[in-house]
Amino acid sequence: MVGLHAVTGTARPVGLVMLVTWPALSGALMALAFPWWPHIVTEPLAWFSLVPMLALLDRLVASSARPRAYVAAAVLHAAAYQLGCIGLLIAVKGPLVFWLMVQVPWLALPWLLYAGLRRWYGRTVALVCLPLLWAGLEWIYSTHLPPQLPWWVMGASQARMTWLIQGIDLTGVWGLSGWLVAVNAALWALLAHAPWAHATAAPLRAGSGCPAKSWLQTPPLWTLALLAALPLGYAAWHLPPASEVTEISAEPSEPTVPAASGEQTTAPGNPSLQVLAIAPGADRIAEDAATLAALLAQTDTALRTAPQRPDLILWPEAAAQLPVVQHLPTRNAVLAHVQRWGVPLLLVGIEHGEPHPTHAQNPDALPWQAEPRYLASSLYTPELAQWALHSAPDAPLPIATDRKQRLTPFGEYLPLMQAWDAWARWYAERFPEHGNNWYTPGEGQAVAFKLRIHPRNPSPPDTPNNAAATAATSVHAVGAITCFELLFPTEVATRAQAGAQALLWLTNDAQAEGSAYIYQFAQFARLRAVENRRAIVRANLDGDAFVADAYGRTTPFSGRTGRPSASLHNLPLHTAITWYTRHPDWFPLASLAAAGLITAMAWLLGTIRRRRTGQGLAVLPERGTRRERDMLIN
Question: Bridge partners of 542?
Fold first, then answer.
């Protein structure tokens, strides 16, 4: 195809090579901007990664290209971006990961809308609407449409940029996505105004030898300056000095437990919790009485060797693949140890639920339909253990559980399995090894677990009745996040809304071990910490525990040794509620509304102008004053 230069109107070819390579380059740069490697900074790629795509769409509009050219460019960009993100995952997990390509149509939609706005209302309207559309549509497809995977939302690529992410306590990660797109849009607008982009040089100011109006005085440059000043100014206002964070290296070992890490991540005097994170290892999962006894013995050893008494013990996801709450022998074994330790235990276990009435009497119901299984976190306190073991050892345990609501697609559940029965049955027949053992997504409100904290002792408790101590205590609330749920900002915000003063992230990344995804996944905790101004401690099945403070700064990872380990962490507590925590979805909704309003105003003004001049609907030219453009349309 032959088109016109997007700015000058001169003839410039837009061939097949350009139509393929420019979107692919833009998508690849977006994918590379994510934190893939600990010591390589690629985040700045996101600041200009969209420029090639914007330049191509400008050329297509100027050449009056057919709609299929826009569709091809948008789809190629989305496919390159998605393949760049999941390429390593395909190498680790196999070709089944290709199902994630179903997101390509959603990723292409903002570009198609931008092309329409660009064609009918001009560059300015389109560039203003693009960041708004991007933020709103990204929120819709990543959290509400299949496959519901907000891993590679654009704003998440900046998770390690501490100075840049502070403002997400107002807007969430969606505001950061909009900021990145706005920077790209302003940069492209600035380049479009550059002298070298025009066929003729700008007129010189009399007697000076300088252009009459420098392109450095154009609105895009001032827009870029404002976009840079906003996060920098907000970070300077809110971010405490880095010296207030003491990072203590914690190498895991057995039986010695490393000293607490993450000390003084808040101002002196703020309350905090001492949290002991147990890492049994991916090959030491408790699935029966013997393996459960090994996990309890490991926790015993960690408590005896801890430099100080912890306030809470964490077992990560998959450490206990047992129905702890409902299976009496397992429950009583855990409670007996909790009573002896005198320290609460938070774990993720399996919980069996009642089948739906439509499946209760159906002999052909699939296993997950006949007996729904949930992954649920629960807290076992010494007070609860004493009551249950002495007063009601055989009675149901009155304990709150927080069921995991966001499950890993094709790992823990089958997308659309509850709404599309035929699809679930086909998959179960085709892949019986795991197609019959899905978990069911949980429902209901988030739970904030209450902890009664006793004054800390210099050494771990050594008497079985330590829980009955009469010393003054304090009560704090914590929220549990189970692995994949961390990717969903709203799910995390509901824990802070429920009163959680700190967040406990219980994970199992064994399926992706050996790839860059385990590092990337861990970095996203920074975003959730800043959005809610809550410190997050991570307990992982195979190590790499750490603390992210309320400003997104992390302590060193505890590391992976391939053997059972434990690490002690100091977890600051916060009570202030951020604007984002109160209104987690306000920014994407407001962005979509603003984009619609701007488009409506552009349509209305264009309609009024056409009625005054008696002209029909036409594509606006690119250059000249408004009067000259109106004359050209006629």
Answer: none
**Residue 216: which pLDDT band, with cuts at 50, 70 and 90?**
low
Is the Cβ–Cβ distance between 166 and 234 less than 8 Å? yes
The tens digit of pLDDT for each residue in 119-140 reads 999 899 999 999 999 999 999 9
88/82 Cα distance (integer angstroms): 11
Backbone angles phi and psi of 271, in degrees to 5: -70, 155
- From the list 563, 534, 572, the residue with the least C-alpha distance to 278 is 563
Quickly tell me which residue has 């997400």 as its tokens: 168
Residue 142 CA to residue 133 CA, distance in Å, equals 14
Question: Phi and psi (nearest 5°) for 542?
Answer: -120, 30
Q: Answer yes or no: is pLDDT of 202 > 80.
A: no
Do 44 and 101 form a contact (C-beta atoms < 8 A)?
Answer: no
Structure tokens at 264: 């003084």
How many helices and strands in the chain, by DSSP H and E?
Answer: 20, 13
Q: Which residues contact 596 (CB under 8 A, 6 or more apart)?
A: none
CB proximity list for 266: less than 8 A, separation 6 or greater? 272, 535, 549, 550, 572, 573, 574
Amino acid at site 518: I
* Alpha carbon distance 445, 442 (integer Å): 10
In this structure, what are the phi and psi dihedrals at residue 294, rounded to the nearest 5 degrees?
-65, -40
Q: Where are the alpha helices (DSSP H) in 392-438?
A: 421-430, 432-435
Contact 568, 276 (CB under 8 A): yes
Token look-up 């496959």 returns: 147
Residues 6+ apart with CB under 8 A from 551: 162, 166, 238, 239, 240, 529, 530
Cross-strand pairs, 450: 477
Q: Are 275 and 545 in contact (CB under 8 A)?
A: no
